[in-house]
Write a structure and sequence with these properties.
Length: 191
C-alpha cells in the first residue's frame, strides 16, 4: 500500500460535524487531511496544548491551519502565541461553501443522521459530495474497502471517527465502527 501524501492544510476542531464538512470541501484523493482536537485550555499546561498542535502542523508541513469550531479563547491563544501567522477561522456553513470545488457543489449533498459520523463522512468523500447532518438515525452499514485494507474505529468519540474516515479515504481502506467499550470493563482489562 502506498502511503498517502499529507494535505497542505491542517485542521484544529472541537466540532466533529464541522470537521466532517470541511473534510468534504477539501478532500483530495490519495491525500490525508490531518485533523486534531482544539487545545484544552483548562489544563495547567494550556500554553503547551497550543504549541503541541502547532508543532503537529509544522511536522505535517502544513501551509495553513484552519481553526474550525474552536472557542474564542483557543483562537486568541493561537494568535497570541503565533502573532505573525494567519489562521483561517471557520465557524459556519457559508465559510465551508466557499471552500468547495465547483464539481462538489453540483452534486447532491449526502444527508446523514447524528451518529456514525465516520461512516457518513467516508460515504460522502467517496461520492465526491458534501455532507449535511440532521437528527435522523444514521444508516447501519460499513464502508467497503477499495484497496483491501480496513480501518477500525471505536465509537464514542465523534472526532476520532472523522479522523479515521479521512485516513480510510486517503488509503482507499474500508471503515468499520465497533461499539465503545465500557469504561469500567476497560479499566478492569488494563489491570
Amino acid at each position: 500500500m502506498k502511503c498517502p501524501s499529507l494535505h497542505p492544510l491542517f485542521v484544529v476542531s472541537d466540532q466533529p460535524k464541522l470537521a466532517a464538512q470541511i473534510s468534504c470541501a477539501l478532500a483530495l484523493p490519495g491525500h490525508y487531511l490531518p485533523i486534531v482536537d482544539g487545545p484544552r485550555l483548562t489544563r495547567p499546561d494550556a500554553s503547551a496544548e497550543v504549541v503541541r498542535r502547532n508543532n503537529a502542523a509544522a511536522r505535517a508541513r502544513a501551509k495553513g491551519i484552519i481553526l474550525a469550531g474552536v472557542s474564542d479563547e483557543s483562537i486568541a491563544a493561537f494568535q497570541q502565541k503565533y502573532p505573525d501567522y494567519k489562521f483561517v477561522i471557520v465557524n459556519d456553513d457559508a465559510q465551508i461553501a466557499e471552500m468547495h470545488s465547483s464539481a462538489a457543489i453540483k452534486k447532491e449533498p449526502l444527508r446523514w443522521g447524528s451518529g456514525r459520523l465516520g461512516i457518513g463522512l467516508l460515504t460522502a468523500l467517496r461520492a465526491g459530495s458534501s455532507i449535511i447532518f440532521d437528527d435522523a438515525v444514521s444508516p447501519q452499514f460499513e464502508v467497503k474497502s477499495e484497496s483491501g485494507h480496513l480501518v477500525v474505529c471505536e465509537q464514542g468519540e465523534d472526532l476520532s471517527e472523522i479522523i479515521a474516515a479521512n485516513y480510510a479515504f486517503a488509503t482507499g481502506a474500508g471503515l468499520h465502527l465497533i461499539p465503545a467499550v465500557d469504561e469500567d470493563k476497560a479499566r478492569a482489562l488494563l489491570e
